[in-house]
Amino acid sequence: MKKHYIKLLIWFVSTTAFSQVQGVGINEDTPQQALHLGSSSGTIRVDGLNATNSTYNGGGTETYPLYVDGDGNLTLEFKPIYNSNGSDALDHAILPGSVVTLPAGDNDGVMVGELFNFTIAVNRASILEVKYNVSMDVFLNPAETAISDRRARRVNTFFQVNGAGRKYGQSAKCYTGGSADSETGKLFNTSTSYITLPAAGSYVIRFYGEVSSGITNSTANTGLATCVKFARGNDTLLFRLH
């Protein structure tokens, strides 16, 4: 009878130890995770991610980043929050701030207007990538009189988080005209920037257009009349989290 007790104890200990192994080991007798590769040189191969089966794998000798989606699926596709993907991202007709006007005799020769904004919520500290290509037409006034005074105007665009602090993605163009027949045409400001979102929460990303002519001889109230109409061309936007 004593021998039977010893055998039963050995069986119970070995069964308990086996049941505590939570995973599958490949070249590994004691897996520490659900899947544990024991080889010091082995890799994982997934045919669904190769150049033949995935349009996001460019093939050759290059390597490509692997991502995990919200369901835990592995993918080579880095999905953005928003991507205009060739379509016109901004419609000036529905953007209340798409026209920024600097009046003649302005005090400091600078006028800033908010063109649009968007809200993003994150559950951890993140980096937001923003790419934009925004069009603009430069005139003397809202009636679209051509600038003919041969003096330069500067048009700057940028983002701010919650409308304060650092200016991200700044891009600028200068414009001048010498006659009533001066060509206005389309100018574009283009930039890529990475915005720090320091903690979980909701953030409002505000996009601004800044029009400036400066002032003459540091004399106040000598700003030059200028009107910039934004988003009347083919504008593009891309937002994605890292």
Question: How would you describe this protein?
Answer:
- The protein is mainly beta and 242 residues long.
- It contains one helix and 14 strands; from the N terminus they run αββββββββββββββ.
- The strands form four sheets. Strands 5, 6, 8, 11, 13 and 14 form a six-stranded antiparallel beta sheet that branches. A four-stranded antiparallel beta sheet has the order 7-12-9-10, with no helix packed on it. Strands 1-2 form a two-stranded parallel ribbon.
- β3 (67-68) and β4 (74-75) form a beta hairpin.
- The longest helix has 18 residues, at 2-19.
- The relative contact order is 0.21.
- The mean pLDDT is 87.
- Keywords: Signal.
How would you concisely characterize the structure shown here?
With 242 residues, the protein is mainly β.
Overall geometry comes to elongated
Distance between the termini: 66 Å
By DSSP (H or I, 4+ residues per run), the number of helices equals: 1
**Secondary-structure element order, as H and E?**
HEEEEEEEEEEEEEE
How can the largest sheet be summarized? 6 strands, antiparallel
Derived structural class: mainly beta
User: Could you tell me the strand content as a percent range?
Assistant: 35-45%
Mean pLDDT: 87
Helix content: under 10%
Low-confidence stretches: none
Calculate Rg over CA atoms. 30 Å
